[in-house]
Each structure stands twice: as C-alpha cells, then as structure tokens.
Amino acid sequence: MEISSKENTHFFSNNTILSVDRSSFKSESSASKEKQSCCGGIKIFLGALSFLYFAKALSGSYLKSTITQIERRFDIPSSLVGVIDGSFEIGNLLVIILVSYFGAKLHRPRIIGAGCLIMSAGTFLIAMPQFFMGRYRYERFPSTINSTVSLSPCLQDKSQTPLSALGKSQAKIDAGCEKEAGSSMWIYVLLGNLLRGIGETPIQPLGITYIDDYAVEENAALYIGCVQTVAIIGPIFGFLLGSLCAKLYVDIGFVDLDSVPISPKDVQWVGAWWLGYLIAGVISVLAGIPFWFLPKHLPKPEGRKDSSTSSEQSKFIIEENKEPRTSLIIFSLACLLFLLFCLADFLPSLKNLFGNPVYILYLCASIIQFNSLIGMVTYKPKYIEQQYGQTSSKTNFVIGLINIPAVAFGIFSGGLIMKKFRIGVLGAAKLSLGSSFFGYLLLLSLFAMGCENSDVAGLTVSYHRTKPVTDDEQALFSECNSGCSCSKNDWDPICGENGVTYVSACLAGCQASNGSGKNTVFFNCSCVGTFESSQSSSAVMGPCQKGNECPKMFLYFLVISVITSYTLSVGGTPGYILLLRCIEPHLKSFALGIYTLAIRVLAGIPAPVYFGVAIDTTCLKWGSKRCGGRGACRLYDSSALRYVYLGLTLVLGTVSIFFSVAVLWVLRKRSSPQDETLSANGERGACGTKSRKDNFVNSEQLIQSTYWPEKETRL
C-alpha cells in the first residue's frame, strides 16, 4: 500500500509539473503570437498611413501647380483664385475640433477611411466643371482657326465680311452667352477644395495618435518620422504631375490638336488641369481602402500593458459601449455639463498660455512668417511664368524637382544641427532667428534678378517705340491702324519682325494672312513697317520672346531660390522645439492646437487672397469675357510684379524677424549667464527646465518624428 501510494503521489506530481509546463508554454506561445500580431498590425497601419500622407500631399501640391491654369480656364482674377486656395483651410477648421475629440472615442481607422472618401470626392468635384463647361474658347482671329470665311485682319471695310458669316458669328456669340453661366463653375472648384479640407482633417490627429498608442514606445518616434518623410515626397510628385498635365491641351481627346493655334508658351494656353485631379482622386480612394479592414484596437505592447491609465481608459471605453444608449435629453444634458466643465478649465489654461511672453511672441512671429511664405509659394508658379516667360510645365517641373527637395533637406539639417551640437532652448532661438535673417537677406537679392517688360505696342511701348505709355486704353490705337475696325478688348498677340509684340493682327494693321493655326503668317502690317529699325512688315503668331538676358536671369533666380528655401527651412525644427520647451508640460497639446489654429486662420486663409489682390494691381491687359466683363489677366507689368510679389514677402518676413528678436531678448532676460552655460551642457535651459531630459531633444525624435505644423503648406 505504501509503495502504491508513493507511486500515485509521484505520478500525480509528474502530471502536475507537465501541466504547468504545458500551460506556461501555451502562455509564452500566445504572448509571442500576440506580440507578432501587434507588430504586424501596427506596421500595416504605418504603411497605409504613409501612403495616405503621400496621397494628401500630392493632391495639395497639385492644386498649387494648377493655380494659373484654373485662373485662365474660368477667366477669374488672382484674388478669386486665392479664395479657392484658402477654402481648404476653411473646410479643415469646420470639423477639426469635432474630429479630434470625438474621433478618438470611435473607430479611428474607419473614420480615417471615411475622410479619404470625402477627400477623394472633393478632388473629383474639382475636375467636374471640365465636363460641363464645353470646349475651351480662346481669343483668336478667324483665319487662324481654320475658318471657312477668308477675312483680312484689318477690316478696313465691314462690307468685305459676308452678312451670312456675320450672322453665324453673332449666333455663336449669343449661344455662348447662354452658356456663360459656365464661368461661375469655379464655385465647384471651391466646394471641392472645401471637401478636401474636411476629408483631410482626421488623418493627422487620429493617425498619429493611433501609432503612438499601439507602437512600442521606443519605435513610435521612428514610425512617425517615416510618415513625415513620405509626406515630403508627395509634393515632389504633385508638382511633377502638374508639369506633365500642363503640357497636354485642356481638351485633349475631344479636339484635333493640330487645329489648335496656341502653344504652351501662349498666355492663353490651358493644360489638362482636370486630368491630375482625377489621378489624385483615384490615389486617395486607393489609400483609404486598407483603413476599412483595420481593427479599432490593436494589442497593447508589453511595455504599456502595466499602465493603469491605459487599462482604465480601455476598460471605460469597453464598458461604455456595452451600456444601452441614453435618451436624447440625458445626452444633451451630459454634453452641456461637459461643455461647462471644459470652459471652466479652458479659460484659465488660455490665460496661462497667453501670459507666456515667449509663446505669444513666437506665435506672432510664426503667423507673420507663414503669411509671407504661404503667399510666396502659392503664386511662385505665376511669378516664374510672367517674370521669366517660362511655360507652366517647366515651372512646375523646376519647383518639384529642385525647390521641394531643398526644403526637405533644410528640415533634416535643422534637426541634425540640434542633435550634433546638443543645442538648448536659447541656441534653438538663435538658430531659428539666424535662419530667417539670412533667408530673407538672400531673398532681397532677387530684386536684381528680374526681366524687363517685353515690348508690347500700346502697353509697354508706344507705336513709335517710346516709353512710357499712358494707362489710357486709347494708347492701343495709332495712325497706322486708324483705318482698321479693331477692338481694344481682344488679345490675340502676334510678333512683328521688328521684335515688338502687338495685341492683335488688326491693331498691327495687317492686311493679309497666309496659312492657318500656329503657322499663320501676316503680311503688309502697316504698324510693323513704321519702325525705322525694320523694313519688313510681316508678323507671326504668338508673342515675342523675352530679352536675351532673361534665360540667364532665370538661372540665377533658381540658384538663389534653392539656397533661400534651404536656409529658411533650417530654422523650422529649432523653432518648433523652442515652442515645446517653453510651455508647461500639461499645456503642450493645447498650445500646439492654438498654434495650428492661429496659423490656419490668420495665415493659411487670408495670405493667398491679399497676395492675389496685390498681384492683380500689376496687370496691364485684362482679358474680356464673351458677353462682357473682365476676365483673367493677359499681361503683367514685370517690374511692378517683381516689386509687389517680392516686396510683400520681404516686408512680412522682416516684421517676423523683429518678433523673433523679441523672443530671443525675453529668453536672454529670463536666463543668467550661468544658465546659458548650463544649457549648453544639458543641465538647465533658458525657459527654466530643470532636467536633462526636458532640455535635450532625443536625436531620433528630433530628426525623425518632429511634426512641423503646416509643413506641407510651407513646402
């Protein structure tokens, strides 16, 4: 009996040990599987979010590249284009508070997916007017568009035009007037951009927080840095797509391209602007698909499972979802109580934030600087086209391939400098100030790198080649074309053999023409023959090229522009770190929210509008709509455009530098010489931080994960 009992005891103990070993093995195996699923899930989300950041950056930069195309297609001034550009920020602001607060409590990936659908719908809506407005109409003399009626450019006698032809022409104009409502279809572009802003709203706050919640803590910075790096690549492809579409005619696939008399160098040329929006919309749809299949929650990493806050929050959310829905009255009361509670804490926090002189001064400096940068970037393609006579395609190609990589490299260099030299708060303020100062100093040199106005008879030079010309529209008429029945509203430029551009063949006094389309040649032009420097009186289609010095000036402009973009971007990361280090820890999120809101409301929305209004004042020749009214500008005063565009940018930048100097002065006043020395050694900073951890910026977080608000806009 004793032997059997001992055997039974031994057998039972062995079974117990085996069961314990098996259970421990199962737990280890399940933990390993959970870890793998966590890592796999977060990496899938990371890949999807990176592609989505690429898609939204691509569509945003493509809009910038089509500013001049939209202006010409809808015959609207630059100021109205500025309103369209700012509508994105308006849409974003309409829902950002609701999305940021309530989105975190719902299924974040699916909300991001819904945002992608809204963003793609807005992108498609922008392109829709192209399919309802009919074919693009440009101002051209009838013989250049394969007209069956042979007309002389200079209609010395209206009787030489057959009445039937005049009747048909008038009938076409009347029919066009009935469709003139199509000119108001720019509203659909505005609404589409507004929808883009609404759809883009959940991507940043919900996407970044999702990564931060479920990624291993030491990997979160790397993951967020990857997302931001991909976001920088998006604008490059956006401008390159704009360059490709600008080469294609707007009605490609619907008209015979050989019959189109204008070329991409013509100011009336409109590229296939709508095609890029269709491509961007498809990319946005594809980017949103993965988010519909991602889970609401991922397994927490091992290092974060012990966090009581996270577990309590997760438990609260699960229990709340299990409860039955409350009535509408109880829900309304709860919302009201929550609002009162928030206001009770909101006002003291706001007072505390605005009582921080470093924060408020840096906020003012950033608002003014972003006004200058957003306005400059929005109208940079227009400036290059009008100042240096470049095509839209080449302009977008240059910006996408040269300027944007310089900005990205500048942002990276700023973080690298902060890490390499272990710069504290005071050093960050100095680096940010130095970057702005030297950047705007370089911008000053661009005033000397402009092209003179082209010689346009009646606008920049008189018909006798004397300057200046009066602003009176009667200056378009002279003795050489007094016998012609010409309209002062036409814009159909031709280039005389004397190197002077004429507004139309009629105003050049041309009596005959040969050929059609782009190959039309005009003969016996009385105004061309009046110049002593030319014995010939012929002219060809299209305006004359800019002066011989202009290509060289354009090359200088590109070099200085790239260096300026890099220099200004170097100060972005130090400035952002300065913002974070001089705010109490519990107010950081609130401070960043106020900062982003202020930049969008006071810079992102108004800057394109008043820059556009200022640029419109430099117009020399406005186009006219078919049924009357002012259209888009056809010719700008190059010198005035240069002074207005660069001058407004420089004045705003100079004011922002003064605020940056004030920030540095306040920091110096707060810190003693000992504090500055300690700050350099990593013990204490100018803002009164006490620990090495608060003063120094982790190199991975600084270089890889720093999020600079409005970075895509500044690009």
From TrEMBL:
Keywords: Cell membrane, Disulfide bond, Glycoprotein, Ion transport, Lipid transport, Membrane, Transmembrane, Transmembrane helix, Transport. Residues 474-529 form the Kazal-like domain. Its main location: membrane. It is a multi-pass membrane protein. GO terms for biological process: monoatomic ion transport; sodium-independent organic anion transport. It catalyses: L-thyroxine sulfate(out) = L-thyroxine sulfate(in); L-thyroxine(out) = L-thyroxine(in); 3,3',5'-triiodo-L-thyronine(out) = 3,3',5'-triiodo-L-thyronine(in). This is Solute carrier organic anion transporter family member. It comes from Picathartes gymnocephalus (White-necked rockfowl).
